[in-house]
Amino acid sequence: MPKINGERLLADLRRIADFGRYETGVHRPHLSPQDVESRHWLVERMKEAGLEPVIDGVGTVMGRSPKSGPRLLMGSHSDTQPRGGWLDGVMGVIYGLEVARALAEDPETAHLAVDVASWADEEGHWGQMVGSRSYVGLFSEADIDKARHRDEGTPMRDALKAAGLESAPRVHFEEGKYRGYLEAHIEQGGLLEAAGKRIGIVTAIVGIFVFRLTFKGIQNHAGTTPMPIRKDAGVAMMRLYNDVMDKFPTITGPRSVWTVGKMSIEPGAPAIIPGKAEMVLQFRDADVAVLNRFEAALLEIVAAHNKSGPCSVESVNLSRTMPTVMDERFLDAIEESAATHAPEKHVRMPSGAGHDAQVVGLKLPAAMMFVPSIGGISHHFTENTADADIVLGCQVFADAAAKILRGN
Ligand SMILES: [Zn+2]
Hints:
- By secondary structure, the chain is an alpha+beta fold.
- It is about 35% helix and about 25% strand.
- Bound molecules: zinc ion.
């Protein structure tokens, strides 16, 4: 079995964290100068590893192996959230690189081919998972024309030009090229740590349903309008939210989550009864049956509120992202490797966060693996993972890749 070099792996991770370093984390949004620099550094490291890398027309780095043996695609993303962590995304890219190196160094596995991708803009500064969606054909030239930076409004075309990528071809999925796709990532939650486990074998990436609920009442004077005749949209919203919080726990799956992360009342003044209110509810689960159950319950609650009044409620579905189930044979391969290197310290679990694997998984058998996040913290510059867990995870991943490539 291939033996990874833990020191080389950690040194690469620490080096790429220099690009956009912020406190103990990294600020490296896609196509920022630091992001572009880090992609050129990655290209050089890929060349040293014997890969043939390109940076494509949306900024994805693809390092192709010149070998002709069975081939796997591995990777993740190296862009970050604003003031994000040093491992979110890029750990999976450097794992791919280290696995390619480790396979090449072992005469028994030297013929096996691994292509390594750093997908553009996973963190969504220009669109939604632009690199992987472009790869599978879900992000067109017209989408690039339309794309603007979510905070600054800059056209993506301008940013690509500034990065020297305006005429770079885009990489696209090729039928029959790969056995599948493997992605490693930090957990970004506290389940592994709490359970005393070191390897998470991701069974599915959760689906997310999002609804906007709009409440209409009558705006009026807060001092002169008697309580019995008020149509307070704010109160209607709170009551419906309360009903959701009462109902959902009775129909939940073991790891379902639901959140109202956005709420507003209008006009939003202390002396005015709100005439309009709005909240956005999202729920996540790895099982589509659970998602459908939540949706049905929500619509029942909405209907009941419309019937009882005094305000009206309208629900609009904003999106339905279906769960992505990971490839069972790949999960077995990761589990066998984990059983060798981390006996009793591995667990199967869903991913509550979205990842490129759910996009690439539309075209290829895919699997994901997690290592623990200290304190469950992520999307913050204090995000971290123990060095020993980073190294262990890569060794498990390398073994799993070799098993899958050899077909056993
Ligand atoms: Zn990530």
